Amino acid sequence: MLREENCSLPHPLKAIVNNRGSVTLIVVDTSGPATSYAPYFEALTTKLNQLFPVESNPWLPFRLAPTPVQLAIDSLPVDYMPLQDEDLSSYLSDSILNSTGVTISAARFLNPNRQSHMEKYAYSVVVNVEPDSVQTMLPSIYLFGNSRTVERAYSSSPLTQCQKCWKYGHVKPLCKAESPTCQLCSLQHTKANHRCPNPSLACPSRGNLKAILGCCLTSPARWSNCGKAHSARSQDCPE
């Protein structure tokens, strides 16, 4: 259908159908935003209904999936904490709306351990807002009688691997490393540095065309976390 419409965007899409019959299309080439495909939503839906007739229950038009941004609000006073965890979202909604004009769609405690909050003077929460509301919230909002710091929240776990230093437990935006670590040799540069500047095609590994693990003796493979001869993304590392 995209070709028929002379769409200049990348054509490959990944389709997922759940057990209720809802169809989700995911852009394979992430260099282009999903919003670029919005003009084709009606035509895509029409084509879908033509190919798979569903009689009196046709597919409704495609629409962009919600993409809320998570923001962390710090140093909220414990005295203003709701009695029940499930009341947090409704408790914060009115206060944030009155302060900023922003509507939050969800809220949770940054630390789910309620007892730990009671041992401190303040706690932090993570709220979901629409992308166009982010700048209104950053870098601080006036809440409960004082200015509260607001910053982007990034989900991570002990298994999250940083794309800058390649260690575990945090994401790239929160990485404290001053310089990037190469995922191929562990030196302080990016993977792109492994492309050989010699344009000759004589290199048997073709390292002049793309970065290759252990391409030659001058760039031996090594991962800083274990010291073994493989890349940071190797699935075979025992560490």
Describe the model.
14% of the residues lie in helices and 18% in strands. The chain has 4 helices and 7 strands. A 5-stranded antiparallel β-sheet has the order 4-5-3-7-6. The two termini are 47 Å apart.
Tell me what the CATH architecture of the largest domain is.
Answer: 2-Layer Sandwich
| Poorly predicted spans | none
Distance between the termini: 47 Å
Structural class: alpha+beta
Largest sheet: 5 strands, antiparallel
With strands numbered from the N-terminus, the spatial order across the biggest sheet is 4-5-3-7-6
Report the helical percentage: 10-25%
Mean of all residue-level pLDDT scores: 85
Global morphology: flat
Write down the Rg: 25 Å
SSE run: EEHEHEHEHEE
What is the count of distinct domains? Answer: 3
Give the tally of β-strands: 7
Strand portion = 15-25%
Question: What labels describe this entry?
Answer:
3 domains; 239 residues; Alpha-Beta Plaits; alpha+beta
Describe how the helices and strands are arranged.
Elements: E1 13-17, E2 23-27, H1 41-51, E3 69-77, H2 88-100, E4 106-109, H3 114-118, E5 122-129, H4 134-137, E6 140-143, E7 146-152
Antiparallel strand pairs: 1-2, 3-5, 3-7, 4-5, 6-7
